[in-house]
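SAMPLE LOG
Freezer: B-3
Tube label: C17
Construct: single chain, 318 aa
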Amino acid sequence: MQRERIEAAGDEEPGSDGIMAGTVCWEDTQLHLDALRRSVDSALDGFTRLPEDCPPRLREAMRYSLLAEGKRLRPLLVLLAAEACGGRISDALPAACAVEMIHAYSLIHDDLPAMDDDDLRRGRPTCHRQFDEATAILAGDALLTLAFEVLAKHTSPKEKAGECCALLAEAAGPCRLVGGQVDDILAEKGGHSPELLEHIHRRKTGALIEVSLVLGAVLAGADDRRRRAVAEYGRCLGLAFQITDDLLDVEGEEDVVGKRLGKDQDRSKLTFPGLLGIDESRRRAAAAVDQACRAVEGLGADARHLTALARFIAERKR
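STRUCTURE (predicted):
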């Protein structure tokens, strides 16, 4: 794939089009992200055109959930981090797809009746509603394992493939993503505190966002300083994203967000607005975005799209 490049927008003043002085405006970043998203969607389509040995119903369920229209935030972060660290988008594309497969599997399982019991995802019936619970469980399992197959087979050199597989497995595993999901379920029984809330979401949501950026840096051959910078950006962005997600469950419009809203309160879920209130939640989201942007200041102009994306995250409507 030809590497997309958009020049920064000079010394523009803040306003409806510009994010802040000296940075690229959101419209330019959006064009860049749209181009990257098309590459991700094409690669995901290719990786899930599985051989005839795969049962057609399983393949259909995998592709139904994976290829549904979505933000593709995590794979975009892989690519943007690779770009910000001087790497090539094409080298990071398999890792970007692997991360999205892990994310899709987690959503399929999250939506199951034993977990969040959701009927709607990305504006469509959830996987277990479209097919059945057993097929949904197995489609999630298949996407989880396919992610590591894609990462191992299509990443070079093999030393980087091994490192990336280990990083992604840790982020998706029992101490991070899955552990955060378990604690989130247990929190429905009480014992709420701001510290527990942030601890849960730094793992349940933040782990996959953070590792997306680290994978991009690793594949770009970044040094420790750059890896630490994008990792810190990811930690802060993950927190801002989750707070905004909690706010959307309270204030969003269901047809725009694409999933059933108000369910967090119905299930006594531990959320930022539920524990801290809407105003304090917004303040914390804004502070996390500011910290994320500061983390990548030292990466220079190549990080401008990361900065613009962080600013957008706290204002998103879906």
